[in-house]
Amino acid sequence: MSAVQPIGPDAPPRRPSATAGPDVRRAGPAHLAAQLGAVRQLTLALFAGWEQALPALEVPLHPELNPPLWELGHVGWFQEFWTTRNPQWRRGAAADPQAARPAPRWPQADALYHSGQVPQAARWTLPLPAAATTRALLAQQLDDCLALLRGAGDDDAALYFFRLALLHESMHAEAARYMAQALGIALPERAPRRRAGAGAALHVPAQSLALGQAGGGFAFDNEQPAQPVTLASFEIDAQVRRWRDFLAFVDDGGYAEPQWWSAAGRAWLAAGARCAPRYLRRCDGQWQELLGGRWQRLDLELPACHLSLHEAQAWCAWAGRRLPTEAEWECAAQSGGARFVWGEVWEWTASAFAPYAGFVPHPYRDYSEPWFGTHQVLRGASLATPPWLHDARFRNFYLPDRNDLYAGFRSCAR
Ligand SMILES: [Fe+2]
User: Fold this and answer.
1) Ligand 1 midpoint to CA 309 (Å)
2) 36 and 145 in contact (C-beta within 8 Å)?
3) Phi and psi of 404, rounded to 5°?
4) Beta 201-204 vs 4-6: how paired, if at all?
5) Would you state the pLDDT for residue 337?
6) How many A from CA of 362 to the centre of ligand 1?
7) Is 290 helix (H, G, I), strand (E, B) or coil?
8) Would you give the DSSP letter of residue 303?
9) C-alpha distance from residue 224 to each of 2, 15, 378, 392, 394 (Å)
């Protein structure tokens, strides 16, 4: 590890990653309308990529996947369900999700696309409208939504569901990319990855802060209410770990050494007979990665990616390090300024996904509450995350076993 840089009171103010875009959480109607159009263009471009790679749009039934045609219809359905079909949309987070709604534009839409009510495995056998019909429906849904937004004014409650629909569609855009990667498909316009050598560490002094603190604008329910925390000083990597770091562990026989793995990690290793990270192989003494279905030489200065929580923890045990808690991550992101580099890959933290004290679920009940206690928090963002989703407060969460995500980690000194 190279020199530790202190973070002091003269550190630059909080600044999101260099890839961060405009702050849609505070945006007014005009900017929000532009971003809703931008994310829809992205959705359609990604779907066109699916159509090109898989003309029949057939993907295997698998817990990590969804049919691309279902995904397309679902983002339009979600937007319509929470904005134009929501009689209480002006109340924002205080809206009653059970309030009676008018019928959807597509008569059976609720039975097809309601993610909380249509089991994942059932999505392969639904009578979905064809792609051209779905695209036409999405265009109407967006037009309806934008017409409503034009008269919404600019208070946060009235803009809540428009911002939610935008962020929700952004999450599905990222899902399209990691599902395509799992299937060996290259979707268009993948962002270039950043090469970097071994990074510095940052020293963060003891301090008190409020997690999730924000002055107005949009927040997800799991970011609220703001949580006061007091942290001891800690040392944290200034960037995520690179393949060079992680593969030293693999080359040291780490996958065959039970001592580095948790009990859950050992079970995960055994279940998959794993001896290396997903999408990697050794060939003639060189590491290669499978990218968009093609094997190519691995660049060791790229962020380690597609790792499960178990792999991140095992590396830390081997290296004598530890994962940051989500509070430490947010503290470092807020106080580290540009020296704390994030946004390359999602970062596993040491924190189980749990409600902040005083949590109140928002109308989109399926978003957070069903996943408390089983999922693990990831912070940051990845290059596949649309920039308007980047926020240092954002709490992503997945099961510890997932290794299909654009997820890696950074570490702290013990
Ligand atoms: Fe969704």
Assistant:
1) 23
2) yes
3) -95, -10
4) parallel
5) 87
6) 15
7) strand
8) B
9) 37, 21, 17, 14, 11
> What is the C-alpha separation between 198 and 189, in angstroms, rounded?
28
Judge contact between 229 and 208, C-beta under 8 A. yes
Give the pLDDT score at 22. 57
Instruction: Please give the angle made by the CA atoms of 341, 344 and 349, to the nearest 5 degrees.
Output: 80
pTM strictly above 0.85 = yes
Q: Which residue has the tokens 């963060």?
A: 204
Report how far ligand 1's centroid is from the alpha carbon of 161 (Å): 14
Distance 220 CA to ligand 1 centre (A): 14
Q: How far is the CA of 146 from the centre of ligand 1 (A)?
A: 20
- pLDDT for the residue 196: 86
Q: What whole-number distance in Å separates Cα of residue 59 and Cα of residue 121?
A: 12
CA distances from residue 57 to 50, 76, 102, 414 in whole angstroms, order as listed: 7, 18, 31, 48
What DSSP line would sit under 326-352, residue for residue?
Answer: HHHHHHHHHHSGGGS---SSEEEEEEE
Ligand 1 centroid from CA 313, angstroms: 29
Distance 38 CA to ligand 1 centre (A): 18
Out of 193-207, 236-250, 264-278, least confident range: 193-207
- Using the mean position of ligand 1's atoms as its centre, give its distance from the Cα of residue 73 in Å: 10
CB-neighbour burial class of residue 361 (10 A; exposed 0-12, middle 13-18, buried 19+): middle
| 74 CA to centre of ligand 1 in angstroms | 7
Give dist(CA 399, CA 337) in Å, integer.
30
Ligand 1 centroid to 170 CA: how many Å?
10
Q: Determine if the peptide bond prior to 225 is cis (ω within 30°).
A: yes
Which residue, 62, 17, 26, is CA-closest to 334?
A: 17
Give the sign of the dihedral formed by CA 93, CA 348, CA 199, CA 6: positive
